[in-house]
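# step 3/5: fold
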Amino acid sequence: MDAPLSATEITALLGKGTRFEGKLHFEGRVRIDGVFKGEIKSDDTLIIGEGAEVHAEIDVATVIVKGGIVHGNIRAKTSLELHAPGKLVGNIHSPSLFIDRGVEFQGSCRMDAIEDRPSKPQSQIAQMPRA
């Protein structure tokens, strides 16, 4: 049986000088220090390092931007941290937000609980049996 991950252990790294385009779905903690374009989804933590350039729609539990550049909307179910000299061009939706002095942010911010979207429409019409 695998031992549980420590709170600071990185499960995957897209290092400096790397480029990736596509959809990223992951468990654990992933750090991006390179260039990423596409879509990122997870119920865990995404770290965007200094020097990273991310063009993506991001939908994860926790996002930590440690100085990289993000172009795209961020939906963080738990929290979002933006640290200097980070830059974000896009909209934010998160119940908890930290923005460091010196961060560039262009977009709108919504701070409330994020509920999972229902997979099926809520209203369904029931048909009465004919007599």
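# step 4/5: annotate
The CA atoms of residues 14 and 106 lie 25 Å apart.
# step 5/5: archive (pending)
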